[in-house]
Specification:
The chain has 354 residues and is an all-beta fold. It has one helix at 7-10, and strands at residues 32-38, 45-48, 56-66, 73-76, 84-90, 95-100, 103-104, 113-121, 128-136, 147-155, 165-168, 174-175, 180-186, 198-204, 211-213, 222-229, 238-241, 249-255, 261-266, 281-288, 295-303, 314-322, 332-335, 347-353.
């Protein structure tokens, strides 16, 4: 199953415009990689330059610390002036900061690692707008919940399109070797076929089950997972990898803009902060999947709630991690530990890229 109702918002067209698992997709357009910088030695900056002018950008930031603490702070076109403004918050908090000389992607310091996903609106004569989420490890192992930041930034420059993006670290340590910034682009007029995201799995249940699994997938550094869950009764949704059901996960979740809840030594990287539900649900996850590092997850969930316009849906945003540092994820599943199975028609789609 694909998700055509999200395509216009996510920069995807008919058929999701991604390569299929065999690499023979016929779609055109979609997200294409414009630039990437992967550090070969520690540094306080990561720069991706000479960017093609695209209407929208998607950024993936994966950074690890060495010699002290780090933080992901973003600049455009190497502009170091006080031409930026920020609104966001760490772990459910709320902060406004303006004017400033950079744009926070992760609000708190971190001495292990961070992962971020952001979207940028790039219109030459308008202020450049940025929104997204990030996750920080906080501490390795299942005993500490990860931290999260939701960010909304702007760059007040209205004369030129973005041609470079810069991660800058203001903290005591450095970005370690292997840290990287990846910039994707999308434009309505694009007709390329070398899309960044390749479909790895597309599974729809033909009968009820307490598990919705991708099956075995090709290991990729970055994963994008979407799932649509149907049920005739009360269901939960626990996100697991490689069939690991042990207490090897942690997560931090926020329901409907309330107070964050942290969960340690849990059996999944997502656990349904809104509780069990019989309403249809839509879930969206981004995952950084490096074999030797803990796997970091950024997630969002929407529950339909009572049908009709008279009742608002429920939402959850959060982060999670899987503490495995030996293997890449090669299977993604949602497990229901409540009394009712996922109904026929429930589906999961996984895309990936290195």
């Amino acid at each position: 199953m694909s998700f055509p109702y999200l395509q216009n918002f996510l920069g995807l067209g008919s058929g999701l415009q991604t390569k299929n698992a065999a690499g023979g997709g016929v779609g055109v357009g979609g997200w294409v990689e414009l630039g990437r910088t992967t550090l070969g030695a520690s540094s306080d900056t990561i720069t991706v330059s000479s960017l093609t002018n695209k209407r929208y950008y998607m950024i993936l930031g994966s950074t690890y610390a060495t010699g002290g603490q780090i933080r992901q702070m973003l600049r455009f076109n190497s502009d170091t002036g006080n031409n930026y403004a920020y609104r966001g918050g760490a772990d459910g908090g709320s902060v406004t900061s303006a004017p400033r000389s950079n744009m926070p992607i992760n609000e708190d310091n971190e001495d292990v690692g961070e992962f971020s996903v952001g979207y940028v609106s790039n219109f030459a004569t308008k202020e450049k707008l940025v929104l997204g989420h990030s996750v920080r490890v906080n501490a390795t192992g299942a005993g500490t919940a990860p931290g999260r930041t939701e960010f909304a930034n702007k760059h007040s420059q209205t004369s030129n399109p973005i041609n470079a993006m810069n991660f800058v670290n203001p903290e005591s340590g450095d970005y370690a070797s292997g840290s990287e910034l990846v910039v994707l682009g999308w434009d309505p007029a694009d007709t390329h076929t070398n899309n960044f995201w390749t479909e790895l799995a597309n599974v729809t249940l033909n009968s009820s089950s307490n598990t919705l699994s991708s099956g075995t997938i090709t290991a990729k550094k970055y994963l994008w997972v979407q799932a649509y869950l149907k049920s005739s009764g009360s269901t939960n949704r626990i996100l697991r990898f490689n069939s690991d059901s042990g207490s090897n996960y942690t997560m931090r979740l926020n329901a409907n803009g309330g107070t964050d809840s942290g969960y340690t030594a849990f059996s999944g990287a997502w656990g349904g902060e809104q509780g069990n539900s019989s309403s249809p649900m839509f879930l969206n996850f981004f995952i950084v999947n490096t074999a030797s590092k803990e796997k970091l997850v950024i997630g969002n969930e929407l529950i339909q709630n009572t049908a009709g316009a008279g009742t608002a849906p429920k939402r959850t945003e959060g982060v999670g991690k899987w503490t495995n540092t030996s293997n890449q994820i090669t299977q993604v599943s949602l497990f229901n530990n409540d009394v009712t199975d996922y109904a026929s028609g429930s589906s999961i789609v996984v895309w990936g890229s290195d």
